[in-house]
Amino acid sequence: MSKFIDEGYIKFNCEWINQPLSVNVPLDLKFWRDKMHELKQIGHYSEINIGYGNISVKTPDGMIISGTQTGDIYPIQNEHFTLVTQYHINNNSVVCKGPIKASSESMTHAAIYEADTTIKAIIHIHNKELWLKLMNKVPTTKETVPYGTPEMANEIFRLFKETSVSQDKIIVMAGHDEGIIAFGENLNEAANIILAQL
Question: pTM score, two decimals?
Answer without folding.
Answer: 0.94
